[in-house]
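Figure 2 data, in text form.
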Amino acid sequence: MRIHCFAEPAEWEKERCTLPDRAAHHLSTVLRVRPGTRVTVFDGGGRAAKAEVIESSGSSVVLRVGERWTVPPPATRITLYLALPKGAALELVLQKAVELGTARVVPFEARRSVARLKPEQRRRKTGRWRTIVRNAAEQCGACRLTDVAEPAGFESALESARGEDRLLIGALEEERRPLREVLRESPAPESVGLMIGPEGDFTGEEVRAAIEAGAVPVCFGDRILRTETAALFGLSVLAYEFLHG
């Protein structure tokens, strides 16, 4: 069984690396590692290393860090700008975004968003989402953690998206083009952003604002997809085209 676990960057300057409490509990109690077990550790920023368990108890796991290497970032940085979906759908999207190699997820409240968060809820939710990202990275073997921004409004998300080399927006009403057609008409960009709206879609005003910011309206076929389905469909296509194609 391959074990891939996160270690705080500050621990990497030492030959002996102490894992965070949550990771230590998982390894010692759930996976039941013992001294001598070999694992891979990563710091979330692209560094990874082979390591060996030298101490293991219910609340502490200490590793001896060996060979280290750096995983380069992908040639194309993919960012998902996602209108907050209802319920726990965002947690599913985050898990799969990590597996698909998404660099960043920016949740936001669109005009028609049903899900709304108060300021204190935003901070708490963001902390939980980042834990989900770390768990997903450990599960799938990623060495770079997907960055999760704290939720903001549409205007703030759009301002951030202006910096993308290529910006796409899923739209139902405005004139739009097939995603594959848009992606293949020019060379791979250094960064690409995908904007996905809420259950009731973007308003016409929001789509026009995105177009003025450089976004290209795209469609994912004839069917109307749920917010989380559209996000994962779009990310899968982008990953195929730019990361694994």
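Caption note: The radius of gyration is 20 Å.
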